[in-house]
Amino acid sequence: MQLVVLANAIQKEQWAGKEHPSVQWITEPDELAAFKADVYIDMLFEHEPQRVALLNAVAPATVIVNAVALTGAELPASFVRFNGWPGAEKNPAVEIAGNDDRIEMAAAAFELLQKRVIKVPDVPGMIAPRTIAMIVNEAYFAWGEGVSTKAEIDTAMQLGTNYPYGPFAWSEQIGLEKIYRLLQQLAATDERYLPAPAMELEMNSRL
Question: Would you say 127 and 134 are in contact if contact means Cβ atoms under 8 Å apart?
Fold first, then answer.
């Protein structure tokens, strides 16, 4: 199997493990067409027509995209979604969802990156990202209510739960806007996911 991975320098360092001769790392989407492979992983995926067209052009190869908030119904049939949010690289397994016919190829691809896969329901947020989003949201509730500072909450969560990052530091690595959008999307059907008022204020201040 030949695998091409589109990633930035930090993602390559985090996910690569031992270099593998069957894995080609690239940094620009336009490089995708320059390499022939059985599977392509886009860790920098953005759901926009031009990007989807670039990835569609490598058919019939399997395409794996870092698309936490989408569902398979919103993507081409050759695509598989995976959780590529920061922190996922520290786990021995990676969450994937999508076309059942492509799961076996996706599993073989992640094996080259020294990961096993866990197939999860094809719903927005998968499992771990939903949990992370709620942890960050609860931290914003606590901060907004004056329970403690962001730095103190981060320290307490890291020491008390052994998380790779505190919730505020984690939200900055992932991108608070991604967490906020996922919470909004999930809150449309379950009000438990409504973003904390302090998060709403911070998001509005960034606009």
Answer: no
Is 69:125 a contact under the CB 8 Å cutoff? yes
Q: Say if residue 149's pLDDT is above 80.
A: yes
C-alpha separations of 12 from 8, 16, 22, 120, 154 in Å: 6, 5, 15, 24, 26
pLDDT at 128: 95
> Does the pLDDT of residue 33 top 90, yes or no?
no
pLDDT tens string 106-127: 999 999 999 999 999 999 999 9
Instruction: Walk me through the domains of the chain, giving residue ranges and CATH numbers.
Output: 3-119 (3.40.50.720), 128-202 (1.10.1040.50)
